[in-house]
Amino acid sequence: MKHADVTFLSGGVECHAWHYTGEGDALATDAGRPVVVMAHGLAGTKDSGLEPFAEALAAVGLDVLAFDYRGFGSSAGEPRQTVSMAGQLEDYRAAMSAAARLPGVDPRRLVLWGVSLAGGHVLAAAAHRDDVAAVVALTPLVDGVAAGRHALAFHKPTAMLRSTVVGLQSKVGRPRMMPVVARPGELGCLTLEGSMESYLAIAGPTWRNEVDATVGLELGNHRPGKAAADVRAPLLVQIADFDRSAPPQAAAKAAFAARAEVRHYPCDHFDVYAGTAWHDAVVAHQVLFLRRVLAP
């Protein structure tokens, strides 16, 4: 499916996005089609596994705007490869405004879609909004403190301490980069057995295996799950029950607070992407949910 290149400004910086036009008018009203705003997780880029989701949603009648955060992928912005939770949320909201201006869409029926880190961003972005018609949070990371405790079950404390030290050095001195994914025992954000292979399997041409080491410090104060109760739109939370990266119990707690529809999958964090056993079920549940809550 073809997409159009779109740019929009966030914080004065040009962000790059792909616009997929929805097929047919099954979900359209006189005001236009619903439009999905789609973003990736930790250091992710739109060309790294998002396209199959975007194409599936466009095929049932939803426009989709999939974008890169500032400093990542095809978007502009300096410094590169630096995760700012506040900055990414600002980018997400700017993308919502850009999506509302797309031709043929209903600006009052935004659909927020996020995976992993963005699965938390969508909760904060949707809170207290009346122009959001639905939210999809896939394997969401909603609580940085819980994620830290969860990581202790799978990582050696010395490895986590090493990452923290490098993060502090980057924060107070010259920026230091670390790999997004690395092999067990190596320095990196995601070093669990199989994580490197899983991420590289979806990595697109603009993705880079490096991120500012301050990302761990950013995660420590990241609590978007607290906004779940303020989401007014129907919410679908898709939880990987054996998720070693985003704690499933924290996602379930946020879903309960939001009275969300919840789907569980007996898999790990990366097992929801195209080419895995659970991808088709994950997409099918998103389509069922969105068709139901967005029906004209």
From TrEMBL:
GO terms for molecular function: carboxylic ester hydrolase activity. Keywords: Hydrolase. Signal peptide: none annotated. Residues 34-140 form the AB hydrolase-1 domain. The keyword Transferase does not apply. It comes from the Bacteria. PANTHER family: DIENELACTONE HYDROLASE DOMAIN-CONTAINING PROTEIN-RELATED, POLYKETIDE TRANSFERASE AF380. Belongs to the AB hydrolase superfamily. FUS2 hydrolase family. This is Alpha/beta fold hydrolase. It comes from Nocardioides agri.
